[in-house]
Amino acid sequence: MSGNEIVIRNLNKYYGKKQALSDVNLVIKHGMFGLLGRNGAGKTTLMKTLATLLNKKSGEINVCGTPIEHAREIRRMTGYLPQDFSMYPGMTVAEAMDYLGVLSDMGGVERKLRIPDLLEKVNLTGHMKKKVKALSGGMKRRLGIAQALLHDPKVLIVDEPTAGLDPEERIRFRNLLCEIAEDRIVILSTHIVGDIEATCEDIAILNEGRLLYTGTVHDLTASAKDKVFSVTVPRQNLQIIKDRYFVTGMLTTGSECHVRLIADQKPFPDAEFCEPNVEDAYMLYLHRNGVEKQKLGGEL
Amino acid sequence: MYGVLFLKECKRTVKSIPYLILVVMLLVFGYTQIVPEFSMIEKPEPNQASYGVKYEEIPGVIMPSAAKSLYSEFAANTYVAYPLGFYKNVKLSDNKQARMADILSELTGTPKEDFMKSAGVKPETGSTLRIGDGSLMNLTPNGDGSYKLTIPKGQSSGSESAGSAITDVTVAKGLTYERFRELMKQADKLIGGGSMYDGIYLTRQFGRVPMTYDDALLQYNDIIEKDRISGAYARVFCDYFGLVLGIFPVFIAVALGMRDRRAGMLDLIYTRKASSIQIVFTRYLAMIVMMLLPVLLMAVYAAISVAGKYSGMETDGLAFVKYSLGWLLPTLMASTAVGVFLTELTDFPIAIAVQGLWWFLGMFAGMKHLDGGYGWDLFLRHNKIGNTQVFLDNFNTLLTNRILYAGLSIVLILLTVWIYELKRRGKLHAYNRIPKIFNHRRRKSAA
After folding, report:
1. How many residue contacts between A and B have a Cβ separation below 8 Å?
2. What are the residue ranges of helices labelled H in B15-157?
3. A84 touches chain B (CB under 8 A)
């Protein structure tokens, strides 16, 4: 077992009688790792379990060679940015960072050097004396990353960090994560496929607590090869197509509609093969694993 | 880490509004109400009109006084009691009144029937009815739903017959003090407990005797020599501040205990390296130290004030601080610990209600020994300057009490550490176990 990877074996977790994670087996290696899944798939449960915030029912988790049961050791090597991130609103950015630094057992000198450094990295140097409550959503998320990196963890767990951010902030945030992932494991949990596509090479797909896929983004995309088509149809036929195929995109222009769909075979003579993207492959994977079209947003 | 974290927690405490209210209250209360009340203790002079009173366990004083009091309450069938510290006017049933008459009979040597008659307790058969002029009538059912009203034998319809009061209640000859205590205990039990015949309070209630010049001089000398003056005032200082510290710290503990959840900081703190014991204990210690600070400030002010009042005499400059630490600190520790523990356990400010109730009961319970004497109360009363001998006589009770509350506080904090660790590891979700009435506060799983 390598000291630079997270190994999860037969992980099970229940909330009362409801099984939240079911026999999850996963190896997460150095760099960015994306955890993709619908809302309620079990992503946050898995992330919280890795961050020692939830207790597993059974199975094994080893974080860089340390069993998850050794919570204090795990906390020393893990940084966590929760989905609903916030800090004491009345504290300034610097105060909040310093407080969390103390709780991370960092010395005074170390804090003095590292906090400005991290705030610079997340582009918050000019806001050190600003109160947390005065920060914008994007700034707060960047502060969240900075606090998670305070003690220079080997593993960074980031749960749904881009939800609610505007496109510019989202791109900036994704780039920041990629930089950070150069010298550690970064686990990014999201239901936004674009975030995964832009940042991760290795991913896993979770659905209803079960792991549907683990592998590279490339392999996932390749699995949808020859299954994605585009076709232009009269607008009145749209509903029939939606009922019969998995529609992943459509653009209506006048009385016609340009549809992107997934099908096992060419659906219409005039349909054209398309290069699949991660979203197509993800949707196909979910459908192949029994997720109904209606549950996939009603379009697929 | 402990030192820096402690300072940061102190800062967090200081910035909380309940803390600022407490500080203002302690300082204003001490400055305007307590220290100005410190009247000068004068040396007694021979042939003064009065030297005050003292309480002593003298059977010859206590027994007749208690017997008279019991008879008077019996005759009116109105017994004053403080069960659980609350004032209660107890009215006994005829059956219990009859048993009380037995006690009085043995106590005084007067036949039971006389007591029964004097109090108008109904005879074994039929019922009695007291009419407008106070006289008693026998009420006998006729069997057809109607009643027959008759004048009891040996009683005319005049007002003198309404149960002639026993004017001379004296203790029976040969009644030992031990037997007297037993009878008083039985009387207290009949009343339902908490009466003035309860063993602890007999002396306080009936052992009141006037002080002589020698007594007053002895008391004065105790204050000068044993208390070195300041001690006598320090107990009153603790009496007042104990009332505040018995309730207000819980507000601060609850406010700070709920702050992490309100700020959404729980996960951020839970995932830090600091151990649960470091976090919980440091926060608790910071609260205690910061709340003790204004008390100590007032203690110093009071010490200076007393020293100024008695310039030229030897005072104990550290008495107020020593008393604050020994007497008030356990109260502060306990009320804070209750707040910390219950807030962590329930994620709800239930501690305010619990501590409020405890404080309320303590207030009434303390009424019985307002001038000292102590007991198991959270905040100890000593609302009299001096009373040195009472303090010394009950010092062991006081010491045990204070050690117990300090110990209880530590136990509560250790339990809090345990709960904190369970919650930190996702093994306890108090927040989701709160009754349905609070369901709107639940946070849905984001997974």
Report:
1. 95
2. 17-29, 59-76, 94-108, 112-119
3. yes
Residue A73 neighbours by CB distance under 10 Å: 17
Q: Which amino acid is at B238?
A: C
Same domain, A244 and A284: yes
Neighbours of A112 (CB within 10 A): 13
The rounded Cα B90 to chain-centroid distance in angstroms is 20
CATH at residue A66:
3.40.50.300
Record the tokens describing residue A221, joined without a space.
């995309």
CA distance A152 to B304: 53
Decide: B278 and B424 in contact? Cβ < 8 Å.
Answer: no
Least confident of A247-256, A280-289, B429-438: B429-438
**CA-to-CA dists, residue B365 to B200, B297, B351, angstroms:** 12, 29, 21
Model pTM score: 0.80
Q: Structure tokens of B33?
A: 């109400």
Whether the CB of B279 is below 8 Å from some CB of chain A: the reply is yes
**What total of structural domains would you count in chain A?**
2
Length reported for chain A = 300
Q: Are residues B269 and B394 part of one domain?
A: yes
The more confident residue out of B363 and A129 is A129
Q: Give the separation between CA B48 and CA A37, rounded to whole angstroms.
A: 92
Average pLDDT of chain B, as a whole number:
86
The pLDDT tens digits for A228-270 are 999 998 888 888 888 888 888 889 888 899 999 988 888 888 8
Helix (H, G, I), strand (E, B) or coil at A230: strand
Can you say whether the dihedral through the CA atoms of B203, B204, B209, B214 is positive or negative?
A: positive
Helix pair angle (B17-29, B230-245), 10° resolution: 150
- Interface touch B446/A160, C-beta < 8 Å: yes
CB contact (8 A) between residue A52 and residue B1: no
B343, B349 contact by CB (below 8 A): yes
pLDDT on residue A246: 84
Chain A: residue whose CA lies nearest to B278: A103
**Which element (helix H / strand E) includes A246?**
strand A246-253
Q: Say whether both B184 and B239 belong to one domain.
A: no
| pLDDT above 50: residue B433 | yes
Domain ranges, residue B60: 55-120+163-210
Which residue of B8, B271, B446 is in closest CB contact with A102?
B8
- List the single residue in B265, B267, B445 with the smallest CB-CB distance to A88: B265
Closest-CA residue to B127 (of B110, B147, B143, B98) = B147
Whole domain around residue A76: which residue ranges? Answer: 6-216
Distance from CA of A240 to the nearest CA of B (A): 34
Q: What is the chain B residue with the closest CA to A107? A: B1
pLDDT of amino acid B19: 96
Helix or strand (DSSP H, E) at B361: helix B350-366
Token couple for B201? 């309070």
Query: Which of the listed residues A216, A233, A248 is the one where a domain comes to its end?
Result: A216
Confidence check: pLDDT of A30 > 60: yes
- CA B263 to chain A, closest CA, distance in angstroms equals 5
Query: What tokens were used for A46?
Result: 């898995």
Exposed/middle/buried for A272, CB within 10 Å: 0-12, 13-18, 19+?
Answer: exposed
Return the number of other C-beta atoms located less than 10 Å from residue B48's C-beta. 12
B275 contact residues in A (CB cutoff 8 A): 72
Distance CA A5, CA A28 (A): 6
Residue B140: in which H helix or E strand, if any?
strand B136-141
